[in-house]
Every structure is written in structure tokens, then in C-alpha cells.
Amino acid sequence: MQSKTFPLAIPNELLSQVRRAARKTGLSMAETMRQSMRLGLERLVRGLAPEPRVTNVDPLPDEVLDRYYSRPERDEAGLARLIKAQATGRRD
Length: 92
What we know:
This protein is mostly helical and about 90 residues long. The protein has helices at about 10-25, 30-50, 60-70, 75-90. It is elongated, with a radius of gyration of 30 Å.
């Protein structure tokens, strides 16, 4: 397996946790870090990755949505048909 070396700055508290985990598991520090990445990457992606887009069409800007939804839509004829159909239980 080909590998690459990657310099990584680790906060002292996290480094202490890795050392403790390495002692408990009997693994080397490097193997402890590799295993923790393997075991945690999927969980990391599930927890932090944004939801995939369903479409490639950009959403409408807020100003446009405000303009669309601020005007009341009145359909008196349609409302009358709906009320009539509900009262009789059948279509007109």
C-alpha cells in the first residue's frame, strides 16, 4: 500500500487522548491515528457534510420570493367550485 506523509498540528489535549488510546489498544501512535480516521470518517461526513442538492437550478433570491408570496392570489370561481363540491361530495 502506497502512503504519503502529512504534517499535522495536534492540540496537546487531543495528542494526550491519542497516546492514551494507543496504550489501551497496544497500537502505535501512527496506527491509532490511522484507525481513528478510518473508523470516524463516515460519521464525520454524515454529521458535517451539506445535504446534496436535488437539482442544479439555483434557488430564487429572497427578494423574488418575497414579491411572489406577498401578493394574495384570489380565485373566487375556483373557491366556489371547491365549496360546492365539498358540500355535495361530488364534482361539478
